[in-house]
Amino acid sequence: MAIAIERPRVAARRANRYRVWRRVGHLLTYLGLFASLVFFLGPFFWIVTTSLKGNEDFFAFPPVWIPAQPSLGHYAALFTRSSGARYFANSFVISSLSMLAALLVSLPTAYSIARWRFGGGLLSIFLLVLRMLPAIALIIPIYIMYKMFGLTNSYLGLVLVYTVVYIPFAVWLLVGFLRDFPVEIEEAAMIDGCSRLRALVQVVVPIIAPGLAVVALFAFIATWNEFLFAVVLTGIETKTMMVLVTSFTSGGTDMFYGEASAAVVLGVLPAFAIAFMLQRYLVKGLALGGTKG
Amino acid sequence: MRMAALALKRKQWEPFAFASPSLALIALVIVFPLVYAFYLSLQDFDLSVGPDYEYVGGRNYVEALFKDRRFLGSIWSTAVIIAPSLAVELLLGLGIALLLSRVIRGRPIVTALLAIPAMVSPVMAAMAWRMMFGVKYGAINNLGRQLGILDVYFDWFASPAIAVTAVVLVEVWHNTPFMMLVLLAGIQSIPQELYDAAKVDGATPWQSFWSVTLPLLRFTMAVGVMIRLIDLTKLFGLIFVLTYGGPGSSTETVAFNTYLVGFKDFRMSYASALSYVIVGGVLVLTLVFLWIQRVREARAG
After folding, report:
1. ipTM attached to this prediction
2. For burial by CB atoms within 10 Å, which of A105, A106, A248, B225 has the most?
3. Residue ranges of the domains in chain A?
4. In this complex, do A137 and B34 lie within 8 Å of one another by their Cβ atoms?
């Protein structure tokens, strides 16, 4: 009799202990994730609030973490005094043009690899090696060549480099999207008298448009983020945001915080937008070097 | 039917025609410059001396690999930054990925939020942190003083050891999210049945982590580490903004050293030789990476 009562009690106690541990585990999980969020997003929060501070807030002690009267004064100063508007536009134009050009030349190449296995395995290894290639090895000869042809300090020069450096990545991703595309659909179009190129443009492209958008957004952010080519090949008129932001470091460790933080906020804006748009593709894109210029 | 088959017959020139625009551009902007850089590396072209140069054979390479203390030092500095960065990124990335894999609700949004640092340019990441480390107005000194931990305005970039630590911290902040994403994808591809089977056999969560998760994650970890390792050998923008190689040359990486030789000293030939040494290193690492991929595919197939 006693034993019969004891058994459920032991089981209940065990279940109870299990439940407690489960709850502790959940608590620790959320605590850990919260700490990670603070560490990884904290700097962004601080940069945004700093860019909205008034000048007197910088000298206050105890320090001002969230300005009482946020102002856009530093953004205005950045746009007028430091030509921020111009450099923001430069970044935008150069990134957009490189993105379009890279897509335009990569699509037929990817098609050729996906449909006809053009180049076999050798070409894909070649593309991988190109992706791993350090930009520092290209910048010296390209600088000398550009000097010769007068291509430094021009949009064309930078767009050309960015387009080509991006081709391996774009081709790689596009091949994946094209392989998923059923061949029968384009063959049907070709039986109806469509040429191969027209079938690609009018039948395949509209259907794989979401895939093209993914590649385009990665291309945009990679070009936006690129620094080495930009700092060597641009001049006073063609600087990008990345080059502009480094000009604030000349004041030592206590540079002019207002405009510098405003420039950083504008510089990371596309990354925020695109991180959310590309959630599902982040691993693939980042692994292949999607954001590295 | 036969008509259709004829119409669809592949034209011999088509594959090449489709691929040619990008191949031509790659030849023009990547392959030719690389060949030209190799040619340059065998000359003594120095823009600070003049436009004339002559053939010197392998002299630049001998200087780089045996005499140039600064370049050899930069190889060491790069390694000193890479080793702790990789270790912390792997462990922290694995930890966060495991936490994320335990959460169902809200996982996509938290993952996207945590991924943002990896999307940001190294220059912007370094700039934000450089301001955080700022002596008088930086968040770190201000927070330390407010909490009573620091009683002076500390200069975080005055001593080599702390400067290297700061670089590693920023690099960890910047790229742990990448490792986290890769490992999370790896964890999610492990079939749930394996965990169920382990549980039936009486395994504790700790045991199932050691004997199910870790062994199955081995290749994913290797691939993630190799990609980071190859990218870390090119560490440039972050150094340019955060420390400019200093104090002294304690945080001068190989890529940054080569940049200084090329665009501050204008020793074009010598910088080309240095960049070829880096290419050699990256090529070896890429071969290791390919080999790991092969082994993985062989195991999976």
Report:
1. 0.90
2. A106
3. 2-59, 83-287
4. yes
